[in-house]
Amino acid sequence: MMKKKRGTVFLFLFLIASALSLSGCASVSTAPLPPTLNIVSPSPDLPPEIAAFSGVWEGQWVNMLDTILVVEKINTETAEIIYSTGEREMCCQAIYVYITARVIPGPAIEWTNKKGYRFVFKMNKDLNSIDAFIEDRSTGSKWWRAHLTRMKSKQQ
C-alpha cells in the first residue's frame, strides 16, 4: 500500500511540474546577464513608442534559443543595450554583449554584428511586446524570428 501511495504522489508531482513547465511558469532562461543593470529612465519628452523599449525583454529565437534584450538608455537616435543569448547544444554559446544600437522608424532598434547580420527589434503597437528578426545583409533573407515580452523580475 505504501509503494502505491508513493507512486501516486510522484506521478502527481511530475504532472504538476510538467504543467508548470508547459505553461512557462517554471521556465528558466539560459541567457546570461551581467551582475548589475543600469537602466536609466527615458526622458519625459521622448515619444512613448520609443520610451517603451526601456527595460528588460525576454523571448526565444524560433522557439528554441533564449534571448534577452536590456535597453539601459535610449533617445531618438541611439540605444545603449545589452544583448544576450542562451546556450544551445551544437549551436550557440551563452553570451551577453554591450552594444550601441540605432533607433529607426517603426520604431525599432537595430545593429549589425561583425559577421554582417542585421538584428532588428521592432516595438509592437501594444508597447508591451517586441518582434525581432535577423537579416543576412548579403542576401537580404530574414531568418531566426523572435517574440519578446517585458521581464518583470529584472527591472532596474
Can you characterise this structure?
This protein has 156 residues and is an alpha+beta fold. Helix content is 17%, strand content 41%. An eight-stranded antiparallel barrel has the order 1-2-3-4-5-6-7-8. It is globular and about 45 Å long. The model is unreliable at 2-27 (pLDDT under 50).
SSE inventory with pairings:
Blueprint: H1 2-23, H2 48-51, E1 55-61, E2 65-74, E3 78-85, E4 95-104, E5 108-112, E6 117-123, E7 129-136, E8 142-150
Antiparallel strand pairs: 1-2, 1-8, 2-3, 3-4, 4-5, 5-6, 6-7, 7-8
| Succession of helices and strands | HHEEEEEEEE
Give the percentage of residues in beta strands: 35-45%
CATH topology of the largest domain: Lipocalin
For the record, what CATH class of the largest domain applies? Answer: Mainly Beta
Strand order of the largest sheet: 1-2-3-4-5-6-7-8
> Can you give the helix content as a percent range?
10-25%
| Domain module count | 2
Put simply, the count of helices is 2
Structural Rg? 19 Å
Global structural class: alpha+beta
What about the largest sheet? Answer: 8 strands, antiparallel, barrel
Topology, number of strands? 8
The CATH architecture term of the largest domain is Beta Barrel
Gross geometry: globular
What is the CATH superfamily label of the largest domain? Calycin beta-barrel core domain
Terminal residue distance: 52 Å
Overall pLDDT: 82
Uncertain regions spanning at least 5 consecutive residues: 2-27
